[in-house]
Amino acid sequence: MRPEALLCSTPAGLYSPAGDFYIDPVRPVDRALITHGHSDHARSGHAKVMATRQTLDIMALRYGAGFAGQTQAAELGQTTEINGVSVSFHPAGHVLGSAQIAVEKEGMRIVASGDYKRRPDPTCLGFEPVACDVFITEATFALPVFRHPDSRDEIAKLLKSVEQFPERSHLVGAYALGKAQRVIRMLRDAGYDQTIYIHGALAKLCDYYQSQGIHLGKLAPATVENGSSDFRGAIIVGPPSAFLDRWARRFPDPVSCFASGWMRIRQRARQQGVELPIILSDHCDWDELTQTIGDLGPKQVWVTHGREEALVRWCDLNHIAARPLHLVGYEDEGD
Length: 335
Ligand SMILES: [Zn+2]
Hints:
It is a single chain. This protein is α/β, with parallel strands linked by helices and about 325 residues long. It has helices spanning about 5, 55-65, 150-165, 180-190, 205-210, 265-270, 285-295, 310-315, and strands spanning about 10, 15, 20-25, 30-35, 45-50, 70-75, 80, 85-90, 100-105, 110, 135-140, 170-175, 195-200, 220, 235-240, 255-260, 275-280, 300-305, 320-325. The chain has eight helices and 19 strands. The strands form three sheets. Strands 7-8-9-10-11-18-19 form a seven-stranded mixed sheet, with helices on one face. It has a six-stranded mixed sheet with strand order 1-2-3-4-5-6. It has a six-stranded parallel sheet with strand order 14-13-15-12-16-17, covered by helices on one side. Strand 2 and strand 3 (about 20-25) form a beta hairpin. It is globular, with a radius of gyration of 20 Å. The structure holds zinc ion. Zinc ion binds near residues 36, 41, 94, 332 and 334. Zinc ion binds near residues 36, 332 and 334. InterPro entries: MBL (IPR050698), Metallo-B-lactamas (IPR001279), RibonucZ/Hydroxyglut_hydro (IPR036866), Xnuc_lig_assoc (IPR026360). GO terms for molecular function: exonuclease activity; ligase activity; RNA endonuclease activity.
């Protein structure tokens, strides 16, 4: 079977002509397979949704129980037939519940990896390489300039600053799904046992992570009414959007921190008024992308959402057939 008959790009997203389903469609469709809960991949309004149990739970938390007509939970590693196409889900290492989706028919296997990363993350299962003929990779940080530093060193930078400035609060911007819980969990792993204050927008997802066995320690709402704390010396975690509104002004002389892969770009950190950039990404950096393609050795690589050209060029130089997919509508909320 030609790969394009198994999966191809359409205005609504990645579509399987053979199986009549979409992967992470950007418009409402009859049947959607969803890789993970970030809002650009997981949208409400599809008739049927298949995803891991955790991704379905996260979608219900974010959109309400009626986010789809019907849902089907995918067990990791198990194969399901959809209109004669074999479909299986495998850990992607991106956020809790995230999965790559492998589709196979007549000896042709394509893996749509969604968003993924290779380095360890204490809040989700690690990326599992799946041999395939065609590997579809994201390209969020697909430039050689993007080399993410050791994640633990970045968390150590935050803790050192907390120690140096005990009279100031540390306001950490982190995306609500995945990044926020990863920052909190890594602070715990580094030995920080004080209460961590969270913005209301993180509460349901943090509760959900805890219900799934990801222990986040003592959390409390970052509200002034909540008690005696004036937040001096405290760590407060909130979504990046909250930093622009009045919510952020209640904290004493805050050190503004932002946990993102984009913090590699100093100018970007400065423009956003970030005093302490924390380079922590839920996506592969350049080395992880090229290492993954090297490990899998697919016959073809299809590149999507991000800096497609550089990775396509790298594949060309390494004699791997590659092309950009030109899918639209993906701007990851969890970089
Ligand atoms: Zn994502």
